[in-house]
Sequence to fold (542 residues):
Amino acid sequence: MRLPFPRRRKKQLEDFSPLDLSQQNAQQRVKLKTSAKANAERLQELVGKNADFHLRELVIPTSPQVVAQICFIETLTDSNLFDRQILRPLLEREKQLTLKELPGDTLSKKIGSNLIHSAKVRELKYEDEVLSNIFYGGVIIFLEGSEIALAVGLKRVPERGITEPQDEAARRGPHQGFTECLSSNMALVRMRLKTGKLRFESFRVGRLSKTDGAVVYIEGIANPALVEEARRRIRSLDVDMVEDNSILEMLIQDHPKMVFPTTFYTERPDLAASSLAEGRIAILLENSPTCLIVPANFYDFFKTAEDNYLRWPFTAFLRVARILAGLIALWAPAIYIAITTFHHEMLPTPLALSIAAARENVPFPAFLEVFSMELVLELVFEAGVRLPSPVGQTIGIVGAVVLGQAAVSAQLVSPILVIVVAISAIASFMVPLYVREQGVRLLRFPVMILGATMGLYGIMAGMAAIVAVQCAITSFGQPYMTPLAPLWPGTLQDLLFRSSHWQADARPGWLRTVDRRRQAEIVRDWEKDGANPDGEVDLSGE
Fold:
């Protein structure tokens, strides 16, 4: 799906909030009864025998009196709010109120709008709505004689405070990171984009998990076709569980079987906000401390949020270093195998003699030597991740040093190989995103097999295959290697050499945004009148 250039919009995008998949057919939805007791018993039957489900009958002291059935799940409901916003307002009255005097044309409106002290009051007509709301921490109030139930949002969810991102820590810029609370994450994004054009479109996925989420975009900037594509993919999901954004990513990305991801995620609200301002789509999910950004290209995985806060020469240097580090991590072990096995003549004589002397007593061929060391290094990395932080760091450092030194002393590997493997490992950690680093580490092994079987010819064939595959795949319909293949000349300056902020006046052309300019053509307009030709400013006031 290639994004078309958007035309002038004639109407606002419709709200996107699909029902549960099991209740999408309106003809199958069951309406509530007028009997409050019958509705409460039906809800108890749907919830099942659970110790934390409570049903309470009370009489609201109005004239005439109203019998109500209150249902809630104790573990999901804030008991203090329940007492202050529902029980006390309904039961503790100095004088009796007359229903006819209360504003509202229905019983549910009279009770919900005048007697309940909460802004989160909804009217429900169907059983599936009642069941869904009670599992989201809502208190359900059935009123005798009314076919409409009231749902009061008193959700209580244990959540951690806003802390610094673990995988994307930065020296400059904000130090706030997303949490597992969807409302908190939405607030973090809105803090950075104070505009009425910011849109949060809610959705729910998972027949069992019923996980809430939000598609986030800026109306008037994001391409409507891209927004509709995100809606379509999420709406079509029919799965039991979606626990995290990483699972949602695999369900909606173009090529889920690829080693390299075609969507990228971030823990930083500032990076999500800047991506939205470019015209991309963000996807937030309940219980997930990350934000999905679509579409993505190959070069996004070598950028960091900190690049926006550094001067452009240093940013350019870091981006070139990251790409070179990725190439070294992927190809260095295979090139070592190919040269030491097939292409000795390519090395200078002193270096060739040094490598031959180091490998003189090693009993294994170069391929087994490199393969075993890389495999052991992966085991050390995984052991360090799975253990508690203090122990994991110790295992990672001591294990690698001790094993490497022991292997060299036992003449199982050569010292030069240890250097190559160490450089390759360090280079792989320079790739900013962990999912991209995983792809580099995994592809390293088949590339080593090509180098061991066909030498440099095999390595070049593998390189051509990797480049060809990445040129063929897409991210939400957009070419993965854009803006280099296909070529977008106006966007090339942001690949390696980030444009200065006063020069970045256009959004990425390949996104085909509605509004293609992000700032005026001349931003530093003060230079014309505020400074002398020699660059000095007259502060004397004369």
The mean pLDDT is 82. The chain has four domains: 31-153, 182-296, 311-475, 485-542. Residues 434-472 form the longest helix (39 residues). The longest strand covers residues 53-60.
